[in-house]
């Protein structure tokens, strides 16, 4: 008896709410229709002469932005220079006679930035990540490694700064033309507009920051634990400090070796008046100028990170200098 009443009640409710469903359906239909109309309008606009004229006028700026974008992508690959040891390949097969599932064991794959370890190593790595990364990933705490990481930090910092500067520059260029671009196109399809104008997308993801993982999988393969260390700018700077503490390098003539830190980068720029020491362009000339810190005698030729060996260069000069010394 109770179930019949229940079914009747549900049917009554559905019938009673029917107009609401119909209304929602209509609204969705209208929205979809409007969106289609907008897409057609957008497609027609991007083919119009009016738009093509703007695109033509903007082309040199867009090319320049894209060039900077490419340069930023190159800076982000700095870390690849740090060589990893090749441990070789091996295959793993589970030959258990019984059907043990061992779900966690399947996680073990060959990843060169992951170290399979015991539970205690995994836990300790969490306490002292830098120490364990050096130990288990064969990163020597020597002067050479320190210099490599300083270069990575320098390039990554410039890349992070470059992304913001490039975005501002791009926005400024597009805003300069805003009076000639219809309101709806500007507001609703910002990304499409920038692409159609010939600007490449800026990649704001942080996936290029290297990650080291320690992973413990229990013998039975039923439980596991992970400890991940991401070398973002903050961790990189701290790692550089950590390495230098260990090395305690006091051999240089000056007695004290400066370290590439965010502070030092800023100090050098300030000292050089935010001006490229090669071509003389400054942020007064171009507010969105990407300035980089350059080693006058490169690290590869035993140049040190000391204030007298550092100078401010604009990204273009720094890039062409890099191309020459390679
Ligand atoms: Zn320059």
Quickly describe the structure:
It is built from ten helices and five strands, in the order H-H-E-H-H-H-H-H-E-E-H-H-E-E-H. By secondary structure, it is mainly alpha-helical.
Question: Topology of this protein?
Answer:
Blueprint: H1 2-47, H2 49-76, E1 114-116, H3 119-127, H4 129-136, H5 143-176, H6 183-188, H7 190-196, E2 211-217, E3 224-230, H8 233-247, H9 262-271, E4 291-295, E5 310-314, H10 315-325
Parallel strand pairs: 1-2
Antiparallel strand pairs: 2-3, 4-5
Helix pairs in contact: 2-5, 3-4, 5-8
The protein binds zinc ion.
Instruction: Spell out which ligands are present.
Output: zinc ion
In N-to-C order, the SSE pattern is HHEHHHHHEEHHEEH
Widest β-sheet, arrangement of strands = 1-2-3
Distance between the termini: 88 Å
**Major sheet characteristics:** 3 strands, mixed
**Rounded Rg:** 29 Å
Number of strands: 5
Q: How would you classify the helix and strand content by structural class?
A: mainly alpha
Q: What percent strand?
A: 5-15%
Helicity level: 40-55%
Number of helices in the DSSP assignment: 10
Taken from the alpha-carbon principal axes, the silhouette is flat
Low-confidence stretches: none
Return the average pLDDT rounded to an integer.
85
């Amino acid at each position: 008896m109770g179930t019949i009443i229940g079914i009747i009640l549900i049917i009554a409710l559905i019938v009673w709410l029917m107009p609401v469903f119909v209304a929602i359906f209509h609204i969705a239909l209208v929205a979809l229709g409007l969106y289609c109309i907008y897409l057609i309008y957008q497609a027609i606009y991007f083919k119009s002469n009016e738009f093509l004229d703007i695109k033509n006028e903007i082309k040199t700026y867009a090319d320049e932005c894209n060039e900077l974008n490419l340069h930023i992508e190159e800076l982000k690959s700095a870390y690849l220079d740090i060589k990893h040891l090749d441990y070789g390949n091996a295959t793993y097969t589970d030959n258990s006679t019984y059907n043990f599932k061992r779900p966690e064991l399947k996680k073990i794959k060959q990843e060169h930035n992951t170290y399979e370890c015991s539970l205690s190593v995994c836990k300790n790595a969490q306490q002292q990540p830098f120490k364990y990364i050096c130990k288990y990933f064969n990163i020597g705490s020597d002067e050479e490694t320190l210099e490599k990481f300083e270069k990575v930090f320098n390039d990554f910092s410039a890349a992070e700064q470059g992304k913001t500067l490039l975005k501002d520059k791009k926005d400024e260029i597009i805003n300069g033309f805003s009076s000639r671009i219809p309101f709806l196109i500007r507001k609703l399809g910002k990304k499409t507009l920038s692409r159609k104008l010939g600007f490449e997308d800026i990649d704001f993801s942080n996936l290029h920051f290297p990650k080291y993982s320690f992973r413990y999988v229990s013998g039975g393969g039923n439980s596991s634990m992970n400890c991940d260390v991401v070398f973002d700018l903050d961790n990189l700077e701290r790692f550089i400090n950590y390495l230098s503490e260990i090395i305690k390098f006091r051999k240089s003539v000056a007695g004290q070796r400066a370290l590439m830190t965010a502070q030092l980068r800023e100090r050098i720029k300030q000292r050089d008046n935010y001006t490229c020491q090669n071509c003389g362009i400054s942020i007064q000339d171009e507010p969105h100028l990407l300035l980089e810190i350059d080693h006058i005698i490169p690290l590869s030729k035993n140049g040190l990170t000391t204030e007298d060996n550092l100078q401010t260069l604009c990204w273009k000069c720094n890039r062409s200098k890099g191309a020459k010394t390679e």
